[in-house]
Amino acid sequence: MDDLKGKYLGQIADAGDENALEAIRVAAVGKKGEVALKMRELGKMTPEERQVAGPALNALKDEINSALSAKKAALADAALDERLRTEWLDVTLPTRARRQGAIHPVSQATEELTAIFAELGFSVAEGPWIEDDWYNFDALNIPGHHPARAEMDTFYMHRAEGDNRPPHVLRTHTSPVQIRSMEKQGAPIRIICPGGVYRADYDQTHTPMFHQVEGLAIDKDISMANLKWVLEEFVKAFFEVDDVELRFRASHFPFTEPSAEVDIRCSWDNGQLKIGEGDDWMEILGSGMVHPKVIAAGGIDPEVYQGFAFGIGIDRLAMLKYGIPDLRAFFDSDLRWLRHYGFAALDMPNLHGGLSR
Fold this sequence. Notes:
The structure is a single chain. Strands 2, 5, 6, 7, 8, 9, 10 and 11 form an eight-stranded mixed sheet that branches. A two-stranded antiparallel ribbon has the order 1-12. A two-stranded antiparallel ribbon has the order 3-4. The N and C termini lie far apart (88 Å). Helix content is 39%, strand content 22%. The model has no long low-confidence stretch (mean pLDDT 83). The protein is α+β, with helices and mostly antiparallel strands. It has two domains: 2-86; 105-344, Bira Bifunctional Protein, Domain 2 (BirA Bifunctional Protein, domain 2), CATH 3.30.930. Helix 5 (105-119) crosses helix 10. Its EC number is 6.1.1.20. Belongs to the class-II aminoacyl-tRNA synthetase family. Phe-tRNA synthetase alpha subunit type 1 subfamily. It is an enzyme of class 6 (ligase). Tetramer of two alpha and two beta subunits.
């Protein structure tokens, strides 16, 4: 045993890495190691011999294991010291030049319109992007035969066989947030609902996913005149013009009655859009007085309260303000495009100067 002790303690002391240390462990105290083989010989000894050899073998095994643990810790410490010696950084060196980030035009437009409507007394409301068809359609007075409910226009979520829950869709507008907000808050209420929406369409002015902001104001004495004033103030602040002329054209939306599409007076001078002047008109949003059935679906008495609602495409607003010709480029993840149209990372929206390009 003294020979085994001297042999393996010497090998452990000379081991240069953990692989060598593991090989020594297996040879010494592994299942087929020399110490294990010696222990098997105890059965052949007399009781008197076992009383002497058994404790001695156990002590030898414990001593070898202790030496292995100590050597392993020493090797780990040496490796850490070497790593600390080689992986160092001179903090007095000049920093590397780093390209500054940029705000996406859609994010910029969203921040600006949120700030503008906050000045007009509107709070921001949010809701789920996956909706059941009651909130997305039925509560908004959209009948079952309406084209918007067809699978060619709306993304429906897959349902397993036997699932009796209502169909769920990727929301086609942020109007469901209006219903949820009325249910939660009641009346009076004044909110905007910005966020992403989905429709099965793709061309220069449409993408399957885009951004929209809808506004809702409910009270006892709200009229179309209030709607007109709010939209005029918003357009003047967002496009940074002193005066603007809006034209309301009769239209039809299931969730408003009466309904109107809103055009803005503009001109195109050498391909540059100018808001508030000229002889051209451009449609920018849809609006109207909230349908009584929609108010009732939100848990509010339509005999007592009334209000207006409107919806605007945020991507379209960004296109118009910053001169971006193709909506699809918003989602192409082209860094060259973002660097061209982006904003400095610390730019913040404000109602006094704006960030026109």
